[in-house]
Amino acid sequence: MKPDNTPSRRISVAPMMDWTDRHCRMFHRQISRHTWLYTEMVTTGALLHGDVPRHLDFNDEEHPVALQLGGSEPADLAKSAKLGEQWGYDEVNLNCGCPSERVQKGAFGACLMSEASLVADCVKAMRDAVQIDVTVKHRIGIDDITSYDFVRDFVGTVADAGCNTFIAHARNAILKGLSPKENREIPPLRYEFAHQLKKDFPGLEIIINGGFKTVEEIDAHLLHVDGVMIGREAYHNPFMMTSFDARYYGDTAVPKTRAEVLHAMIPYIQSQLEKHGKSEKGGGLKLNSITRHMLGLMAGLPNARAFRQTLSDSKKLALGDPDLLLQALARMQPIAA
């Protein structure tokens, strides 16, 4: 269970493959102290047969942070969840929403929604193995199944296994014929399904995900559900999160300006380069592996393009100098807070 002093999941940033790695999460943490952060999906196979530290290592400053797992074998998920707990994650989340063909071949992700009893077994096995929260992220339907009854029955079955938190991406997942990107855009959003889940299961924590870009949209949905998870907007326009701590968590501390966020990342980058080595070729840490997550910081401001160009300059990146952030900042002067 989540410790009493851990912030609620009122606002969270979605797990996003190739994006929400530990460098991205560390950057987001400079903007919001309390927003929940999620890892990219990590498969059970990667943990049980691969490099565990590479997949699970994270920075203490990232808390509260959740590990999202991909898998469908209860025993493997239990072992993986235990690893997540041992490494210090605050939550383990089971992916029942990813529609990619690669994930389907592994018999997990969104296709698990058609096997609610198996998901229940997976949740029970994980809950038996760990003390931290076990949650499920899912779609509202798959393929041409558009009835609310489908997602209601899925949630009911999994809840009976002890899951108390459900994150509903309010679109169907089309398992054949659409790419993951198209699955985030083409199936219509049906927010009312998530709202109805909260009405039908008032004792559960229901979090809604899908297409949110403004705090006004977030506010409107928080009238119906317990939390809102934002995705692409948090990545492309991360400074939107600057008001979250005060607005949703009552934190009266003055948030960092964009410039302060950049300055805060410099010692982190320096420490990572020293720990892993500077390299743009072969081994070591590539500076771009951190700076690429910061390209949207100046979104909407004059000279934002010049800022992005500086942080993306291959010759400058090859030098491995974190002062590149200051060079990019200089292109923004005078900078808005």
Task: Tell me what you see in this structure.
The protein is of the alpha/beta class and 337 residues long. The chain folds into two domains: 11-249, TIM Barrel (Alpha-Beta Barrel), CATH 3.20.20.70; 258-330, Up-down Bundle (Four Helix Bundle (Hemerythrin (Met), subunit A)), CATH 1.20.120. Helix content is 42%, strand content 15%. The protein has an eight-stranded parallel beta barrel, surrounded by five helices. Strand 5, helix 7 (148-159) and strand 6 (165-173) form a beta-alpha-beta unit. The longest helix is centred in the C-terminal third of the chain and has 19 residues, at 258-276. It is globular and about 55 Å long. It starts with 10 loop residues before the first strand and ends in a 7-residue tail after the last helix. Belongs to the Dus family. DusA subfamily. Belongs to the dus family. The active site is at 98 (proton donor). Pfam families: Dus.
